[in-house]
Amino acid sequence: MNFSGKTVLVTGGSRGIGRAVAIGFAARGARVAVNYLSNSDAADETIAAMDGGPHLAVQGDVSDPSAVQRLFDDVIGAFGGIDIVVNNAGIYRYHRLEDVDYDQWQSAWREVLDTNLVGPANVCYCAARHMIERGGGRIVNVSSRGAFRGEPEGPAYGASKAGLNAMSQSLAQRLAPHNIFVGVVAPGFTDTDLAARILDTPKGDEIRAQSPLGRVGTPEEVAYAVLFLASDGAEFSTGTIIDVNGASYLRS
Ligand code: NAP
Description:
Elements: E1 7-10, H1 16-27, E2 31-36, H2 40-48, E3 56-59, H3 65-79, E4 84-87, H4 102-134, E5 137-142, H5 146-149, H6 155-175, E6 180-187, H7 193-199, H8 203-208, H9 219-230, E7 241-244
Parallel strand pairs: 1-2, 1-4, 2-3, 4-5, 5-6, 6-7
Helix pairs in contact: 1-9, 3-4, 4-6
Bound molecules: NADP nicotinamide-adenine-dinucleotide phosphate.
């Protein structure tokens, strides 16, 4: 996989899976814009770990529609154009039905859907409008095993990722005539800050045992599938959802 001469925007590229994606693209020749929410030190650390460049750290809250527009203006201004967009930024919120009051339930749904579904929809809009003008591009959206397996402690999270899958497949159909290809990667538990709060508890062993490999995934293993979907040759895989979950949850 060679991304020489390509420009990439990774949302939530400062930590975890997004960081591995940014490092993976840079190692294969791309210039990468590393978007982050508030952790500018982590974004700088990601850039410092990347080959090539010059790369760009760029703040922007994907749940804020005007911030998304600004993000695209900033990156297009710096790079002259964007070839590949990875919608990776995402959050998880516990809101177990029996434990939260109605207001907490509302706010969890709003916050999670705004960040994990409406935000990526706005990123896809800005990306696709830009790519239509350029004659093509790639969009890869990071979903989750939870879209298929269920998220009883965070139903908004499962719903947001199921919605992201459906949106990605609709856009794959809409955008193929414009030479824009849309793929999805659905990780299982992956060793990042987001998962640490549960992997570092006694439940961690139970989660690692869900895979016959007896472990969770690494950010690099998820990044590898993202890079594949963005690579030359993966065009006809548009609309696909790649599971990266160590056979912990199988669907066919
Ligand atoms: P993470 O370690 O918590 O990192 C989250 C990243 O997203 C950070 O770079 C963070 O920026 C950024 N971010 C959060 N909210 C944002 C917002 N509103 N606008 C812009 N950036 C925002 O998460 P991760 O585990 O790498 O997860 C990445 C993606 O994989 C998510 O979509 C997640 O749902 C999905 N996923 C993860 C797992 C897992 O087990 N880890 C499993 C399945 C799917 P700051 O550094 O500035 O905070």
